[in-house]
Amino acid sequence: MDKRAIILETADMVKEKLKNEGTGHDWYHIKRVWKTAQSIGEQEKANLFIIEMAALLHDLIDDKLVKDASIAAEEVEYWLEGAGVHSKDMESIISIIHSISFKGGGNRSSLSLEGQIVQDADRLDAIGAIGIGRCFSYAGSKGHVMFDPELSVREQMTEKEYREGKTSAIHHFYEKLLKLKDLMNTESGKQLAEDRHAFMEDFLVQFFEEWGE
């Protein structure tokens, strides 16, 4: 099994599949998560093949992007089998992509080191300047308003409620994005999150100053 060839073939497949994706979960998001996870994985001395494959595939079963997550998961498994990934590695990769989401990845103890690294990389791409851009991109793609001061922030806003438009882009900072810094698993992730979190706080100060109410 030529692991580097499998990684590159998988990258090409994901790039093609997400070519016209417009919610902020596009190929460039995947590419950033892939490279960040690889960098953290090298520092943490983790299994880079598992990390890179999980990072590349992590959004292909996300119910924000697919109509049927179970069918999408079967397609990912079929891809891994066809690529010649060993069954043990396949199990690790599938486990990670099922477990790292904000709603599904709350229990750090259930994640392998590789899973924690991919989760950190994914969450890092949700904060900072890129995270702000992705937040507004996703909100716009779902028809959410930029901000509605009459909406209250819900501490336990579900993804379903969010997708149904019972929130705004700015509310999503408080429902999710500002929480991510304290949910980082690795020391590398924690350090990278500090500046990005501070940038979002500064952005919100400026936003409300310009909002003027």
From TrEMBL:
Boundaries of every HD domain copy: 26-127
Matches recorded under Pfam families: HD
UniProt xrefs under InterPro entries: HD/PDEase_dom, HD_domain
CDD domains from the UniProt entry: HDc
Alphabetical list of PANTHER family matching this protein: HD_PDEASE DOMAIN-CONTAINING PROTEIN (PTHR33594:SF1), SUPERFAMILY HYDROLASE, PUTATIVE (AFU_ORTHOLOGUE AFUA_1G03035)-RELATED (PTHR33594)
UniProt protein name: HD domain-containing protein
Provenance organism: Alkalibacterium iburiense
Organismal lineage: Bacteria, Bacillati, Bacillota, Bacilli, Lactobacillales
